[in-house]
Design the sequence.
């Protein structure tokens, strides 16, 4: 039976990475991460397996950041999807920001939960209230859209060194 | 080649795939190109992580390490509390001993007046706050 403390230890970094990608500001992402785990401590942790716990935590994170983004839009605040303060290059960062920002909301969430947080298809499905097949389809669509939008950086990347790495799905779990 | 793309994407995403399916998918130039594209895309997206993200991750690890290595820090307040308790106990015992040897002095009379039975009663509460276990606090999480 997991408790809030162990969930914090396991998923803090993944949640922060995901939130950072969505809001684009590490300081804001840090605040939101704290808020996520504050909610985790205030709520009864569901009795499920580690994968279910992770999906549950990220569902809280997703709902929280959706509200944050929605409130920011209502207040007229600019939402930076990717922080361009320390990119590989400024141009690539801007291109990634625009490409990710151009994705449909759910497609973007699915993509970032996979690439930034390392959730499995099943976990993403649980976090976003989708089926696994829907996750697969949205992920594919998002990647194809990004592939087209990032044609220039992709060509440059294909000429460099490729490292095969899975996303940080483990996070200790 | 949609199926091939799905198989390759699943493989890249650590999802289970059949070996024969993967073999077939990677046997095509399109499949190999798609595999490289997915990896390049992943590198692009994860390559531009903000500084704060990395430093926060490092900070998290260092905090975790510090947490494991700081048992002595945990004992400091416990030791301080023990010292205070010992001091209070010694003071109490010492006071009792000295009091036994001190000359008896009649205590000053304390006069208390009972409140009149028919006096004004306390006002009724204007606002009642109900706290519910499991909603307003959670004992398992330390009451926060």
Sequence:
């Amino acid at each position: 039976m997991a408790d809030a403390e162990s969930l914090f230890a396991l998923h803090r970094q993944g949640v922060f990475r995901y939130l950072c990608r969505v809001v684009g500001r590490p300081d804001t992402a840090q605040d939101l991460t704290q808020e996520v785990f504050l909610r985790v401590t205030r709520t009864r942790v569901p009795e499920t397996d580690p994968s279910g716990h992770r999906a549950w935590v990220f569902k809280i994170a997703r709902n929280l950041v959706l509200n944050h983004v929605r409130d920011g839009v209502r207040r007229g605040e600019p939402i930076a999807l990717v922080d361009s303060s320390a990119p590989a290059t400024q141009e690539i960062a801007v291109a990634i920001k625009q490409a990710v920002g151009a994705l449909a909301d759910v497609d973007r969430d699915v993509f970032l939960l996979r690439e930034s947080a390392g959730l499995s298809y099943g976990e993403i499905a649980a976090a976003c209230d989708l089926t696994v097949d829907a996750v697969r389809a949205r992920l594919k669509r998002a990647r194809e859209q990004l592939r087209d939008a990032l044609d220039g950086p992709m060509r440059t990347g294909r000429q460099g060194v490729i490292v095969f790495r899975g996303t940080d799905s483990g996070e200790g779990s | 080649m949609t199926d091939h793309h799905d198989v390759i994407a699943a493989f890249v995403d650590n999802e289970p795939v059949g070996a024969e399916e993967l073999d077939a998918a990677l046997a095509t130039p399109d499949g190999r190109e798609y595999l490289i594209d997915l990896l390049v895309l992943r590198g692009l997206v994860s390559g531009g992580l903000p500084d704060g993200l990395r430093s926060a991750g490092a900070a998290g690890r260092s905090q975790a390490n510090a947490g494991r290595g700081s048992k002595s820090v945990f004992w400091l307040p416990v030791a301080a509390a023990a010292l205070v308790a010992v001091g209070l106990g010694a003071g109490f015992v010492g006071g009792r001993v000295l009091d036994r040897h001190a000359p008896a002095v009649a205590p000053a009379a304390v006069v208390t007046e009972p409140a009149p039975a028919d006096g004004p009663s306390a006002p009724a509460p204007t606002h009642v706050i109900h706290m519910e276990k499991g909603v307003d606090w959670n004992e398992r999480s330390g009451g926060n």
